[in-house]
Amino acid sequence: MKLVRYRHGERVFPGLLDGERVHRIDTTALGGAEDDLLAIVRAWDDGGSAVVRTIEPTLPLEEVSLEAPFPNVARNIFCVGKNYLEHADEFAGSGYDASGGGASATPDHPIVFTKPASSVIGPDQQIDPHPDLTSSVDYEAELAVVIGRGGRKISADAAWEHVWGYTLVNDITARDLQQRHRQWFLGKSLDTFCPMGPWAVSADEVEATGLDIESRVNGELRQQANTRDLIFDIPTLISTISAGITLQPGDIIATGTPAGVGIGFDPPRFLAPGDEVSVSATGLGTLTNRVAPA
Ligand code: MG
Q: How far is the centre of ligand 1, averaged over its atoms, from the C-alpha of 235 (Å)?
């Protein structure tokens, strides 16, 4: 099941994407706000897909604009750094990695950081390049896990039962801020630095352990990988984070980016005003955003 938040006229609604058509969903019985997809995710564990009640109207996809599926998560988005081997190598060799690690680029344990919900934007919304703050805005295509069932001390064996589904995230990063401040939060948290979408897919429709993922800048292929190459797989990430932090339905975990980001090139190829950057994965659609013109 593909869920969207869509704008039609002045208002935003939750919807069920069915091919090229969007059916409006009624969430009032779930106690959520009118446009709240999180209410569906939170209710899913009790009711399954039956919690999705479609109502009129049904609209052609081309007549609506899609918004971020989860712009209002209850807390920061969990993110994972250096979780593909080739990317860990390119980052370690770029001169921008102030996180240490010594001779080995591969972390011994997952590197977990967060981005605030305030950085989330939807498909086709503009990335602010913050030219007064940074001159090294980079892209990172990532598969993001949406937690459906909360819990603490979730074992890796039980982790899949806690996954509601997936969406895409572009973990936009100001490399100079990431390096200068040593801790990654500032450089990854600027307003508009978390494009998300274009939709959210329930876990039954996605083979998350073998997903092709890619990014393009102005149509040029930059990143291309498969999620089977994650250093720390999704169950390991869930068990690591939940070891001492109670995961909640609607929490989002961005699983890390593969090689081919801007700092992987020599010289680096950062995003420039006017550039179009897109992130795609099998079954998860294409998330496209443009960097605001100068
Ligand atoms: Mg990232």
A: 18
Tell me the CA–centroid distance for residue 56 and ligand 1, in Å. 39
Output the CA 32–ligand 1 centroid distance in Å: 30
Query: Tens digit of pLDDT for each residue in 220-272?
Result: 999 999 999 999 999 999 999 999 999 999 999 999 999 999 999 999 999 99
Distance from the alpha carbon of residue 199 to the mean position of ligand 1, in angstroms: 19
Q: How far apart are CA 152 and CA 245, in angstroms?
A: 6
pLDDT digits (tens, 9 = 90+) for 17-40: 999 999 999 988 887 777 889 999
* Contacts for 147 with CB less than 8 Å, ≥ 6 apart: 162, 163, 164, 238, 247, 248, 249, 250, 251, 252, 253
Distance 78 CA to ligand 1 centre (A): 10
